Amino acid sequence: MRSPFSAARLRRALPSGRRAVAAAVAVVLLAAVVVWAVWPDRPGFRTESALLTVASGPGGNEPVDLDTTLYLPSDAAADRKVPAVLLAHGFGGTKNSVRTDAEDLAARGYAVLTWTARGFGRSGGQIHLDSPDHEVRDAQRLLDWLAARPEIRTDGDGDPRVGVVGGSYGGALALLLAAQDQRVDAIVPMITWNDLSRSFLPESTGGEPTGGVFKSGWAGIFFGGGGSVGSGPAGISGSTAEAPEGAPAPGPPSPAPGQGPGTAPGAPTTGAIPDPSCGRFAPDVCAAYLRIAATGQADQAAVDLLRRSSPARVLDQIKAPTLLVQGAADTLFPLGEADANARGIAANGTPVRVAWFTGGHDGGAGPRSDSDRVKFLTAQWLDHYVAETAAAPGDTFTFSRIAGFDAMDRGLVATGYRTADYPGLNGESRQEVAVAGPAQPVANPPAGNPAAISSVPFAGSLSSLLSGVAGDIPGQHARFESEPLAEAVDVVGAPTVQIRAASASGEAVLFAKLYDVNPEGAATLPSGLIAPIRLTGLPTDINDAAPVTVTLPAIVHRIEGGHRLRLVLATSDQAYTTPVEPTVYQVAASGPVSLPTVAADPIPTEAVLWRWILAGLLTAIVLGLVVLVAVLRLRHRRQDTSVHPEYAGTPLAVRHLRKEYADGFVAVSEVDFEVHPGQVVGLLGPNGAGKTTTLRVLMGLTQPTAGEIYVFGHRLVPGSPVLSRIGALVEGPGFLPHLSGLENLRAYWRATGRPLADAHFDQALEIAGLGSSVHRKVRKYSHGMRQRLAIAQAMLGLPELLVLDEPTDGLDPPQIAEMRRVLQRYATDGRAVLVSSHLLAEVEQTCTHAVVVNKGRIVASGPVEEIVGDSPSVLFEVGDPTAARSVLDRLGGVRVLDDADGHLVVDTNGTARSEVVAELVRAGIAVDRVVPRRRLEDAFLALVGENSRGSGDR
Questions:
Q1: Class of 435-599 in CATH
Q2: pLDDT at 274
Q3: In this structure, which topology does domain 871-933 adopt according to CATH?
Q4: How far apart are CA 504 and CA 629, in angstroms?
Q5: Which CATH architecture is the domain 45-422 placed in?
Q6: Which residues lie in coiled coils (predicted)?
Q7: pTM across the whole model
Q8: Domain spans of the chain?
Q9: Is 589 helix (H, G, I), strand (E, B) or coil?
Q10: pLDDT 10s digits, 74-117
Q11: Is the alpha carbon torsion for 914, 917, 919, 924 positive or negative?
């Protein structure tokens, strides 16, 4: 197979037909794997568990007990041999940590051997951090044992057909074992390291680990994870009770090449008694950790010890095809670790494939869609290179990015991408984004306290939740910020930036962070990833400082258009050890941030396929509805091209309108009225009388059961062109809250498709009376302001018929008075207004005509003064109302009524008005005016009854 790191690195360009076939094949393969993953009737398997004693150590003769479980397909036998997988667990785990994966692989037809690494669980020995003489040699003895099993397929004597899979601690073991033992046929190392010394002592300008910044948070977790004393299996022998009844127990391991027989299972583990202060760590590992933890820096001896357990030194010896899977949410072993391993292995001509996913030590397995992709890639790699039952998996580079939430299970969803060649951390191209800010002083706190919260083990994205507020301590960080990005940038790889620093001590420890800042100012630090920096030989003046290039951790992150980049240089972090002595540095950004990008194609998944199928069905339904509506409109237009001559000059004529719902409810039973030019008509009625239903039918929002509506002689149907001659405010205003009032009006008018000059914005805004507030975002408007804006929207274009439902809702008294004048002025030049309102006093003062509806029927219509009619009462305006009330109370049959205006309304009850006036004058009370008094409210109550509740209009 061609290495993706070959000198040519030419992008393959398949013809479109071949690309389609390749995509179809990929989809079929993926669907097959998903079906395999969920199919309930998988092939069965059996397990055999035992405590095996193997000989390892520097001389190959130190026995150690390993707690093992072998998973065998049910049909595996001497006459039906199966390929094997050695499945290693992560640091601090046991064989049970990988049980589910082992079961999946066994159900797929592999014999899977899991074991608890030395120093953990029930296994014996001490932890040497994947030492070639210890943990790696232990795994070699397990290969010997597999080769001796009659059910295991072999490539020769003592050479099992085997792949090695492991994550983190187990992933490094897979790399080291493949380098040390050429019997390994393929490996899948996941979320693991390249150089352990650089992993725990990183320095992002390229410095040596002896000058690196100690990753104390993760190191402490490692040391604590192997620190339990007395948890070993001393004295335990024989097979465990985990083997099913009747299953044969594993036999003794085969002798190592060139050595005598292995120690039989059950032999006691020998070795030095561990130092209680070190738990189950080997003394040299413990001593190295304690030295580093005490000083915050490593000596060369500690670095050499860590490199002993590092794949970096043996990558050129790996011949087994390698699938490297690394997580983007990983502050322990970030994406750069897999990149270094990939380049070192591929340089030797070994087939290598790289896959990044959204999980990692901080993100777990990632969303299900992402973990399914990793399982598919793993199965594909093993099936080809170990089982030899599948086609070559190819060497495309795949990665993924969180795409959002799944509406079904409310979990995160990741979208996978692929490209023909692995671009490394530099991407296929780079985009530079300038960041600005002056040189700034930053304080290093004494003993690193308080420290910023950014890169917290197992919670690297915590700073994203904190939005940078608690992530950076005031006075301990400097910020350099870009302008908003003109368009989105998909970052895939390691950003770089140049900085300058000065320090009175000549040294500085800094942490570079690259935030994504949205327009509201919320900052996101992708996966909590930061770049630790230790600089030496610094000047005291920032102007004398030379720029240094900082490589930030590789990320997969989309920076949306309108967002800003923020480069932060901080002096402390909870996850790292910083200088004890307090001091102040000067720091500056010395150039733009360089962002790597990759052009890639989305990977189809089962979920995506179903979404496309669902989208296709929905599209078909929508197209069907569009066709149906188009046909109906066409039919209506064909029927309604004529103009009814009787109503050609009438803005609105409603004839025998009826609206009955499917459940039998009758909202409007008989409504019949007209609105003529120059009229302001009030539509009145109690709640539930049918007013809103009438307006909804009028606006084409619902179809009537019977009856007709004509607008200037055109029969009104939904979608009718004559609706453009109506301006309306029905059922409340609706605006886009993030736009200003004026922007909302402009957007509404653009949607009508009519010329901008015909909108008459100035007149409408003058009517609204919003002043400069029209330029504010609508989300900041009060209810009354929204109402005024809605009225202005209805009046855009100065429509010939204006229909308003409760237009004064939310307006204060002066605004109501202004609205009264606006409507009266509007009903000129052939225009007309229909107003639905419950404010009877306003209708009486505003409207020329009224239509009173009760229980779905019209009970009165005509000019307002006719509906009010003759008055049975008289309004008296007098000089002394209190004295006048006392006089009138003594007159027999005369009743003084309450009036909100403070005047006297008198029911004379047949007594002559002249007699009432004479009585007041005799009492010395000045009478200024006597007029008949009847209000619209009186007439309304007489028509509908004080307790009328309508028909329940909906």
A1: mainly beta
A2: 47
A3: Alpha-Beta Plaits (3.30.70)
A4: 78
A5: 3-Layer(aba) Sandwich (3.40)
A6: none
A7: 0.60
A8: 45-422, 435-599, 611-639, 645-867, 871-933
A9: strand
A10: 999 999 999 999 999 999 999 999 999 999 999 999 999 999 99
A11: negative
